[in-house]
Amino acid sequence: MTRKPLLLARIALFAALIYVLSWGTSYLPNINFMFIIVFAAGFLWGMIPGILVGMIGMGLWTIFNPFGPAPVPIMLAQVLGAGGGGIVGAVFSRMNWQQWKTWRVTVYLLGAAFLCTTFFYLPVNLVDAWVFGPFRERFIGGMVWSVISLGFNFIIFPLLFKAVRYLHDRESMLS
Known about the structure:
Blueprint: H1 3-24, H2 34-45, H3 47-63, H4 72-82, H5 84-94, H6 102-132, H7 135-174
Helix pairs in contact: 1-2, 1-3, 2-3, 2-5, 2-7, 3-4, 3-5, 4-6, 5-6, 6-7
């Protein structure tokens, strides 16, 4: 398989993974593996594929959500915000992370988890507060709920980075 169809298949697979795992965690409030998947896509294949994985995966989830689709303004904020993790992953991959000590990788992964979570929840909570109001109370309440997701990401990013590194090593062998 040539490089471009292989990359398209990987983007589709990771986007589908976001959708399936979102179903699996749908009854756990603000706990979602989407952030690490989008980060991994950006880390492995670059910024554009990472953004596409986030936007397509979140687009599928927000449209075909078991609780019903999100209102259009919130849907757009979710789809755009989900792509932010691809940017973070691509930037992280360009850093000299292979030379770092384990503790430094962990600290940077916690920073990446924070950025991925913020890039998603900040626009979503801003749009949600703007649409449903009252703005200040709704925005603060939404940001408090996003702390659950942030805590989960602080745990999952360092834990699953070993899998991302494994995929990175496999990709390096194919190149």
